[in-house]
Write a structure and sequence with these properties.
By secondary structure, this protein is α+β, with helices and mostly antiparallel strands. It folds into 2 domains: 308 residues, Methylamine Dehydrogenase, Chain H; 37 residues. It is globular, with a radius of gyration of 24 Å. The N and C termini lie far apart (75 Å). 42% of the residues are buried. About 20% of the residues have low confidence. Its main location: cytoplasm. One of its GO terms (biological process) is multicellular organismal-level homeostasis. It comes from Mus musculus.
Length: 449
């Protein structure tokens, strides 16, 4: 980590709910926080000193999830009363209700443009709604147990969902089909979300694990075993290179996805922590749990860690094949035999480094990712120096950077063609097998006749 690193600090806390906090979200302008609770209420908190908080009443059972619209003028909430409400953010707290599901609704999520809303329910379905018309559009059915969470990808083309059937599914919003499926034989995911550039997903597991998946190559990139109880929620930093998790072990943990290690354990709650969320600028973090407290943390380390992403880009080295866009496996895949585990038992605020240096940095940090590139990279001593080589000292820096970028892109194109050839070979093999089986079947029919 960078020298002069500052620890995250607890900046303030809010108390107003009468029961556990289930969900929290920052407004897009980072001036307000909305929280949901088992007490059936929503509360809207201002980050200004001594400002008044507003309580919104309407749901008849536990409020399970909430989220601000991207424009910040609406708040969507889900409840065990089987309804979804859209709230106008004023003192009166007016809301419109629609009966979304036939069982408790577990999550709500807006698309990035605010035009769509996706809901997940214990009726085993995922539903997508139009916000402009405030009407139901379509359902997604493939899960065989309660769906705990559903989220849009940043570009709105995909939806990721997790269920107690121990699967995580990726859905195409255009053809409304399941295009990818990740299965787990150990436990189910309580929460799932896309990283900021939409190439990876992270899952918070009931088996105490946090997993990072590459959805384009259908591969498990990292497996963190840093909690002693189930992980209830997670949130990516807006830059994509850090992740924060909330667990029933009473802790909030911060993970450095570039180096693949636990960097902080925050202990401020008494009891399980159910929700955690970064602000849109990444400067603040909120957490809530069974103690009915809403804690606001200032994430000092994030600003320093991400201060100069372009400089970090020069230090990275391409080693693996790029990941291809929009090629989805159609059958389930199990990944239990190839996971990269990081185990931490240290509960101090500054953790020792663990395994996992093979994290795909370009996937996890959108600012470090050249367009259409996605590679597994490792730190190497020779890549750390900022001094140009002898052959480049006489070349202007801008030209050298351009040439280096062109060479990297050519390398990516070459590797992409290689992957396409491999996929073509696999397709040809499958076609040949199908033809052979068809010929055998035809011969068998002829013999019988």
């Amino acid at each position: 980590m960078a020298s002069g690193l500052e620890d995250p600090i607890l900046e303030r806390s809010f108390k107003g709910h009468k029961a556990a906090i289930t969900s929290a979200d920052f407004s897009p302008n980072c001036k307000q926080i909305a929280t949901a609770s088992w007490d059936t209420f929503l509360m809207l908190w201002s980050l200004k000193p001594h400002a008044r908080a507003y309580r919104y009443v309407g749901h008849k059972d536990v409020v399970t999830s909430l989220q601000f619209s991207p424009q910040g003028n609406l708040l969507a909430s889900a409840s065990r009363d089987r309804t979804v409400r859209l709230w106008v953010l004023d003192r009166k707290g007016k809301s419109s209700e629609f009966k979304a599901h036939t069982a408790p609704v577990r999550s709500v999520d807006f698309s990035a443009d605010g035009q769509l809303l996706v809901t997940a329910s214990e009726d085993k379905s995922i539903k997508v709604w139009s916000m402009f018309r405030q009407r139901f559009l379509y359902s997604l059915y493939r899960h065989t147990h309660w769906v705990r969470c559903a989220k849009f990808s940043p570009d709105g083309r995909l939806i990721v969902s997790c269920s107690e059937d121990k699967t995580i599914k990726i859905w195409d919003t255009t053809n409304k089909q399941c295009v990818n499926n990740f299965s787990d034989s150990v436990g189910f995911a309580n929460f799932v979300d896309f990283n900021p550039n939409g190439t990876c997903i992270a899952s918070a597991g009931s088996d105490h694990a946090v997993k990072i998946w590459d959805i384009r190559m259908n591969k498990l990139l990292q497996h963190y075993q840093v909690h002693s109880c189930g992980v209830n929620c997670l949130s990516f930093h807006p830059l994509g290179n850090s992740l924060v998790t909330a667990s029933s072990d009473g802790t909030v943990k911060m993970l450095d996805l570039i180096e693949g290690r636990l960097i902080y354990t925050l202990q401020g709650h008494t009891g399980p922590v159910f929700t955690v969320s970064f602000s849109k600028d990444g400067e603040l973090l909120t957490s809530g749990g069974a103690d009915a407290q809403v804690l606001i943390w200032r994430t000092n380390f994030i600003h320093l860690h991400c201060k100069d992403p372009k400089r970090n880009l020069k230090r990275l080295h391409f080693e693996a094949s790029p990941h291809l866009l929009d090629i989805y496996p159609r059958s389930p895949h199990s990944h239990e035999d190839r996971k990269e585990t990081i185990e931490m038992t240290d509960s101090t605020y500054r953790a020792v480094p663990g395994k996992g240096e093979d994290i795909c940095r370009y996937f996890l940090n959108p600012l470090l990712m050249p367009e259409c590139s996605s590679t597994t990279v490792k730190k190497r001593p020779e890549d750390v120096s900022d001094v140009p080589s002898e052959s480049l000292r006489s070349v202007p820096l801008a030209v050298a950077d351009a040439l280096e970028h062109i060479m990297e892109q050519l390398n990516i194109l070459t590797q992409t063609v290689s992957i396409l050839e491999q996929r073509l070979s696999l397709t040809e093999d499958k076609l040949r097998d199908c033809l052979e089986n068809q010929q055998k079947l035809f011969s068998a029919v002829q013999q019988k006749s």
